[in-house]
Design goal:
By secondary structure, this protein is of the alpha+beta class. The chain is built from 22 helices and 43 strands. It has a seven-stranded mixed sheet with strand order 29-32-33-39-38-37-36, sandwiched between helices. A hairpin with a 3-residue loop joins strand 7 and strand 8. Helix 6 crosses helix 7 and helix 12 packs across helix 13. The chain is elongated, with a radius of gyration of 40 Å.
């Protein structure tokens, strides 16, 4: 909302010398966001004067463009350049080239003379163009930053204008205009009326409300109106007759509209826009001679359509609220009028509409038709129904004042202002919530300042004004008291930190994992937790795969990604593809975050009351309704892990780095990952590892399937890993105590076992650990051999066993006994035998 400072001053008498910056700071202090304080045309320098077009000739150029060679009278600034260019000696004008054609002889225009500098550093100088010396420039509105209109130059009206006089005061140039970003809950501030009220509060000055009369009781003497939908509780219709269709809008009114960012069009349209900006009440004018029968407000019917004022045919929905007459729809209520009853250049009798529409209905219609207007933006944020009658009368009075005619005594008021509910408020509540001692008188004063009717007592009875539909809860009133009291006055109190608390084990573990992964060379990325069915198809997941058990979002950010993710890999693949498409092929990306699985038996979540904390049963039911949401960690690795250099050739990234990712995370929390061959999409069937901790499978790692790599546009042989981070942390030992370090030496024993080729190395390792007992400190596979020496269908696995006792140096016999026990266990459970060759 753009509000000129002079307009605010009309209703809030600010102290002399108050600047736009002062008002901005005051409004920010009471909760408004002021984006900027602009000075219209503030950077224009040099001569900018009023001129009159004396004559012109139209000339067609070689490129087909038609220009006007104009003779312009600029008073004391005349120099005869038009006559000199034409071969004469008349000094009563200047010659100026103009490409616009929306003006006539004797029109008053704004002229920038040589030496002037317009916004953007555009310097004006006398220069030859189109065969003539153009000795200045006739200005359009956008060239002076008075709006966006560049369809033609500005034409001024008024008997008080002096040729050659400075045009700045006439145009309002140099006036400060506040640009305020109004939050959706404060629809009343989408008007000068509302902003002036807030400004008056901020400066503790008086306030004059432009809405100076209430809505009278129902009347049906004017143009007939019938309400058939509860979404329109009030409709005011006032008729103005005998208006001069050619009457121009006064200069001050057009100036205000331009400063507020709107383009002047005609008297009827300008007046309705002006009053809307002033009061916040959207209005619409109908050509009474084009209305056919009574005005009816109802829901649209199937198959109905309308051509709106933007010249677009729109098929209506049955949920749309429409304005109709006997011919059908003549307007989309609260959004835009129709062409059939549009006010035109012959309109002399107008019916002024000031209605109140339900905010939700207008918001949905506006979005449904992708049609946002100044009216709909106000209605969907909440409009004061109490302002409708005064706004309609204000429009009628301005039309009569500037366009002649008269207001019909017969008027129509259909419906009534909706009742506003009264609430009870504890007078001590604002102080409790704000954390400061706010006495009852201060609470009463601040509530009354914002228009709330208050009846004092042990419990305050508060009735919000009609322009504040957002005040519907006791805490809404607390917020009003707080912002006027001043958040800067509330003392900052640091709450005491209870001893013995801090990060939970899970939080500490997640931080350790993230730090370890980053230090190991993996780069963290963040992606949105959404995906589409196509993302799961890309991974070639089967129909019965649990990762297909997704939850759909009711209002997704993107229609192509309406599902909550059940795997992090699609986000990593998208990030990797984005990098490789820009020439970065060596990648080691990782992400940690929640994944979301729909419950196997979906149930509706309860909606507990807000008076207190939900019960344990309610919390459990809500938790069950939202499904399982574990935290996963995943990585995608492609290209070279280490580039080629003087120290040697490049080291390609492979499955080992994917497995190392999980092992690094496990070591960070003191856990040990067990790796076992497996098959799971989207990994390559023969190059996929199952990751488990303490016997529980937590994820998989390996090389992605070639089809997935090709479909995703990734480098060849890209690898990935994903595991359940929560499961890893749960399975990890509690690191509340640190294991003692033994001062005794380690005993080293190596064994080579021959087993069947299909036996997993992880199973052999587990058997060795079980058999070796408590003296075993570590076991590591260091060699795998296959060949004719050990037989067909067999393989040899060599392990390095390390034994250590916490209280003594082990003897050779003790270490050998532990080694033999480990081998015996492998032989018993896996039919392994020790290799001797």
């Amino acid at each position: 909302m753009r509000a000129p400072l002079s307009w605010l001053r009309e209703y809030a008498p600010l102290p002399a010398g108050t600047t736009g910056r002062d008002v901005s700071e005051a409004l920010i202090k009471i909760g408004f966001e002021v984006e900027s304080v602009d000075r219209s045309g503030g950077d224009i320098t040099g001569p900018l004067v009023i001129g009159r077009v004396l004559e012109f000739t139209e000339q067609e150029q070689k490129n087909g463009k038609i220009i006007r060679w104009c003779r312009v009278d600029v008073g004391e600034h005349n120099n005869g350049s038009w006559a000199k260019d034409s071969g004469g000696d008349d000094t009563t004008s200047r010659g100026i080239i103009c490409g616009a054609r929306n003006f006539a002889v004797d029109d008053l225009v704004v002229v920038a003379l040589p030496g002037a500098v317009l916004p953007g550093g555009f310097e004006i100088a006398a220069r030859k163009t189109y065969g003539h010396i153009s000795d200045g420039m006739i200005c359009a509105a956008d060239e002076l930053e008075l709006g966006d209109d560049h369809s033609g130059i500005m034409v001024l009206t008024g008997d008080d204008l002096v040729l050659g006089a400075d045009a700045r005061p006439v145009l309002g140039l140099g006036e400060e205009v506040l640009d305020i970003a109004v939050t959706p809950d404060r629809g009343y501030a989408w008007s000068v009326r509302g902003l002036a009220r807030e400004t008056a509060h901020a400066f503790a000055v008086g306030y004059t409300d432009p809405v100076d009369r209430p809505v009278p009781a129902s009347a049906a003497d004017g143009y007939p109106v019938r309400l058939e939908s509860p979404a329109c509780p009030l409709f005011v219709a006032i008729t103005v007759t005998g208006v001069d269709p050619a009457a121009p809008s006064p200069r001050w009114l057009k100036q205000r509209l331009q400063q507020a960012g709107m383009r002047p069009i005609s008297l009827a349209v300008d007046v309705t826009n002006y009053v809307m900006l002033e009061t916040g009440q959207p209005l619409h004018a109908y050509d009474a001679d084009l209305l056919a029968g009574p005005i009816v407000v109802r829901q649209a019917r199937a198959g109905e359509s309308i051509k709106t004022l933007d010249d677009v045919d729109r098929l209506l929905d049955q949920d749309d609220l429409v304005i109709t007459d006997d011919s059908g729809p003549i307007g989309i209520a609260g959004v835009m009028g129709g062409e059939t009853t549009e006010v035109g250049p012959e309109t002399a009798t107008l019916v002024i509409e000031a209605a109140h529409f339900e905010a939700i209905s207008i918001a949905r219609t506006s979005r449904r038709h992708k049609l946002s207007s100044e009216a709909s933006r106000r209605f969907e944020r909440g409009v004061d129904p109490g302002a409708s009658y005064a706004a309609a009368q204000r429009v009628a009075a301005l039309l009569v004042e500037h366009g002649g005619g008269q207001v019909s005594a017969a008027e129509t008021i259909a419906g009534a202002v909706p009742e506003v509910p009264t609430l009870r408020l504890d007078p001590a509540l604002p102080g409790k919530i704000m954390g400061d001692a706010i006495d009852v008188e201060t609470v009463l004063d601040h509530l009354r300042q914002v228009g709330v009717a208050v009846t004092a007592g042990d419990q305050l009875e508060v009735t919000p004004p009609t322009w504040r539909p957002d005040l519907r809860d006791p805490y809404d009133f607390v917020e009003e008291v707080g912002r006027l009291y001043g958040y800067d006055r509330v003392p900052s109190v640091l709450p005491p930190a209870p001893s013995g608390r801090g990060l939970t084990r899970s939080q500490r573990s997640r931080r350790l994992i993230n730090a370890a992964l980053a230090q190991a060379g993996y780069v963290e990325v963040l992606s949105f937790p959404f995906l589409g069915a196509g993302d799961l198809d890309l991974l070639e997941l089967g129909a019965d795969d649990e990762r297909r058990r997704t939850m759909e979002i009711a209002n997704p950010l993107s229609e192509t990604q309406p599902l909550l993710r059940t795997t992090i890999l699609p986000g990593l693949i998208a990030a990797a593809h984005r990098n490789t498409s820009r020439g970065l092929d060596d990648l080691a990306l990782y992400e940690t975050g929640s994944v979301f699985f729909a419950p196997e038996q979906p149930t509706a979540a309860p909606r507990p009351a807000v008076e207190g904390r939900p019960s344990v049963a309610d919390l459990a039911a809500m938790d069950a309704a939202i499904g399982h949401q574990p935290r996963h960690a995943a990585a995608l690795i492609a290209g070279n892990w280490r580039p080629a250099g003087w120290s040697g050739p490049a080291e390609p990234a492979d499955w080992r780095h994917a497995v190392a990712f999980a092992e690094t995370a496990a070591r960070a929390v003191g856990a040990t990952i067990t790796v076992k061959a497996a098959a799971r999409t989207p990994w390559h069937p023969g190059r996929c590892a199952e990751l488990s901790v303490a016997g529980r499978v937590i994820g998989h790692a390996g090389e992605l399937h070639p089809r997935v790599v090709e479909a995703a546009g990734l480098p060849a042989r890209a690898c990935a890993v994903e595991f359940d981070c929560d499961a890893l942390i749960t399975a990890a030992p509690d690191r509340g105590t640190v294991a003692p370090i033994s001062a005794h030496p380690v005993a080293k024993e190596d064994v080579a076992l021959i087993v069947d080729a299909e036996v997993a190395a992880a199973d052999v390792e587990a058997a060795l650990v079980t058999g070796a007992g408590a003296l075993l400190e570590s076991v590591r596979l260091f060699d795998i051999y296959t060949g004719p020496q050990i037989g067909e269908g067999k393989k040899s696995l060599a392990y390095a066993l390390r034994f250590r006792a916490p209280d003594r140096t082990l003897t050779d016999a003790e270490s050998a006994q532990a080694r033999d026990a480990a081998v015996t266990q492998a032989a018993t459970t896996l039919n392994a035998h020790q290799r001797t060759l």
